[in-house]
Amino acid sequence: MVTKNSIEFDPYVERKAFDETKEGVKGLVDAKITEVPRIFHIPQDSLTDTKPSVSVSNLEIPTIDFASVHVDTASREAVVERVRYAAEKWGFFQVINHGVPLKVLEEIKDGGLRFHEDDPEVKKSFFSRDFNKNKFVYNSNFDLYSASPSVNWRDAFSCYMAPDPPSPEELPVTCRDAMIEYSKHVMSLGGLLFELLSKALGLRPEFLKSMDCLKTMLMICNYYPPCPQPDLTLGISKHSDNSFLTVLLQDNIGGLQILHQDSWVDVSPLPGALVINIGDFLQLITNDKFVSVEHRALANREKIRISIASFFSSSALPNSTVYGPINELLSEENPPKYRDLTLTEYTMGYFENGLGGASHLSNFRI
């Protein structure tokens, strides 16, 4: 028998066995396991690091009200200033009065939950790890076979909703209408966000959009079921996003934390709000003016948590465009800090390393 501490423990074999069930973490919960399998155990040095620091427990990421963004020039400039501050100092902010109807937010959360709670055989028909073959991909841990130190307590489905959206027939009935409707609103909000971020950089409003930052949008619905031993694992390991920008809708359960001033800060759910964060690509092209911040999600014992992340990034799709620091932002005092690269090159290394390790962005510094 292989004991818990046996030298015969082969993470690859156990990860593969888990993958081949095609039932994900939900399958483990349905089997009523009482102990978290070894492949999910986070490294010991991470175990003492799962609570926010007392010194920053009262800190909150900025919240920005978009209600006045279309009122007049002065009001819009005030919003731009708040966006600039948040993008430079935090890398994260929440937006309220963002224009996405509350009903649409509730329907995409409900649709995501319906899919993940559906019959296992239905979900298995969508199981894949290949975006080249499937528009809609369901699996557990995109980085399961990477160098990631542990597997996360999370299942997910992923789908590119722009620029080449799937036909309705390619999406599950449980969440089809909700995905199509929500993605329309997120693309519209993304256009506004990139305009505000362009202005915050001192550039013309359409600048980032002209760089195709808004062109591609990947929607991922994360499902975090209750965990019997939440202190041994994570819902999602520490990472920064391989995107230009990410729009996150989280439910009211909580668990998202960001690394701010070397301490973990809770991103408390705010009803009706959307969480916005800067991705690695935006930090690169702004030459570190905007910051892509590491974040994670805790596991919890009691409740199911759902979140829907929309990444403005081509990620796994072929893309030959070369990106580097924006020339208009550079000077003798501010020379380029990164070499030019393609998003495809970046993403290949990002996927190979997996989540939980050092920031991949540091590999491209000059």
Protein model, in words:
The chain has a single domain (about 10-365), classed as B-lactam Antibiotic, Isopenicillin N Synthase, Chain (Jelly Rolls). The radius of gyration is 20 Å and the shape is globular. Helix content is about 30%, strand content about 20%. With about 375 residues, it is α+β, with helices and mostly antiparallel strands. The longest helix is centred in the middle third of the chain and has 25 residues, at about 175-200. It has ten helices and 14 strands.
Key features of this structure:
Jelly Rolls, alpha+beta, about 375 residues, four-stranded antiparallel beta sheet, globular, eight-stranded mixed beta sheet
Q: Please provide the ordered H/E string of secondary-structure elements.
A: HHHEHEHHEEHHEEEEEEHEEEEH
Question: In percent, how helical is the residue content?
Answer: 25-40%
Radius of gyration: 20 Å
Spatial strand order of the main sheet? 1-2-10-7-12-5-4-3
Q: Return the average pLDDT rounded to an integer.
A: 93
CATH topology: Jelly Rolls
CATH architecture: Sandwich
Relative strand content: 15-25%
Q: How many domain regions?
A: 1
Give the class from helix and strand content and strand pairing.
Answer: alpha+beta
In whole angstroms, how far apart are the ends?
51 Å
Molecular shape: globular
CATH class bucket: Mainly Beta
List the total number of helices.
10
The CATH homologous superfamily is named B-lactam Antibiotic, Isopenicillin N Synthase, Chain
The tally of strands reads 14
- Which residues sit in consecutive blocks of at least 5 with pLDDT less than 50? none
Instruction: Please outline the major beta sheet.
Output: 8 strands, mixed
